[in-house]
Amino acid sequence: GGKTYPWCHFVCGGSGSGKSHWIVQQLKKNLDGPEKDRRHILWFSAELTIDKTLAPIRDNDKYNEWFTGVDISEQAIEDSEHNSPEDFFNREIKLRVDTLPEGGIVVADDAMDSHPVVAELMRRLMVKLQRVGRHRRTGLIYSLHKLFSGSWSTQAYSSCQNIVVFPRSNKNKVRDFLEKEIGMTRKEARRAVNDF
User: Fold this and answer.
1) What is the mean pLDDT of the segment spanning 57-74?
2) CA–CA separation, 24 vs 6, rounded Å?
3) Which residues in 149-185 are b (16+ Cβ under 10 Å) and which e?
4) Interacting residues of 87 by C-beta distance below 8 A, sequence separation 6+
5) What is the pLDDT of residue 166?
6) Using CB atoms within 10 A of its CB, is residue 100 exposed (0-12), middle (13-18) or buried (19+)?
7) In this model, does residue 173 exceed pLDDT 80?
8) pLDDT higher for 72 or 172?
9) What distance in Å separates the CA atoms of residue 137 and residue 128, rounded to the nearest whole number?
10) For residues 64 and 45, what is the distance between their CA atoms, to the nearest angstrom?
11) Taking a C-beta distance cutoff of 8 angstroms, is the pair 77, 115 a contact?
12) Spatial distance between the Cα atoms of 65 and 27, rounded to a whole number of angstroms
C-alpha cells in the first residue's frame, strides 16, 4: 500500500543517460495505479523548471495532489523570500520532508548541483533518510552522475535497496563496481555491462 516504506534507490549515470526518465516512469506507474497504493512525491532539483523529462508528472494536473516540486537552483534560492541558503533549506526542504505523509518519496535529482550550502545540507539529509527514513516510512530516490561520488554515495552501498546504473558513460566504473563491490569475476562483470 501507499503507506508502506518505499525503500531507498540510488540512480547513477552521466548527463542524458536516462536517470530522470527512469525515475519519472517508476513514479508514474505508482501514480497511475490504484489510489490506495499512491505515494506523495517530493521532488528536489536544480533543473526543476527546465528539465523536460519531468513534464509527464510535473505538468500534469491529475498529479497535483501527489507531486510537489521544489526548485533548488542557485537562482531560485537567491530569488526566494528567504534570508539565507540555510533558511531556504529549513523552510523549503527540511520542513517539507518532515511533514511528508507516511509512505512518501523524496526525490533528490542531482542535488549536488544546488547552491553549495544547500547542497551540503541536502547531502546530510539524504544520508539521514537512508539510515532512518524507514522509521517514518519515508523513501528516497536520488541521482548522481558518478557511481563513486565520495560522501554523496558512500551510504548508498549499505542502505539502498537498489542501485540503478546507466552505463552509457560509466561502463568501466560499473564493471569495476560489479567486480570489486558485488564480487563478480571480471569476465562476469564485463559480460553484464556488455549485455546491458
Assistant:
1) 97
2) 15
3) eeebbebbeebbeebbbbbeebeebbbbbbbeeeebe
4) none
5) 85
6) buried
7) yes
8) 72
9) 13
10) 17
11) yes
12) 14
Give the residue from 115, 130, 28 showing the smallest Cα distance to 75.
115
Work out the percent of the chain whose per-residue pLDDT is above 90: 80
Where b means 16+ CB within 10 Å and e means fewer, 113-147 reads ebbeebbbbbbebbbebbeebeebbbbbbbbbbeb
Contact yes or no for 130/140 (Cβ under 8 A): yes
> In the structure grid, which three cell numbers stand for residue 78, read together?
537567491
Residue 165's nearest CA partner among 2, 8, 12 is: 12
How does DSSP assign the chain, residue by residue?
-TTS---EEEEEE-TTSSHHHHHHHHHHHHHTS-GGG---EEEEETTTTT-GGGHHHHS-GGGTTTEEEEE-SHHHHHHSS-SSHHHHIIIIIIHHHHTPPTT-EEEEESGGGS-HHHHHHHHHHHHHHHHHHHHHT-EEEEEES-S--GGGTTTHHHH-SEEEEETTTTHHHHHHHIIIII---HHHHHHHHHH-
| Grid-cell match 523513501, residue found | 139
pTM: 0.92
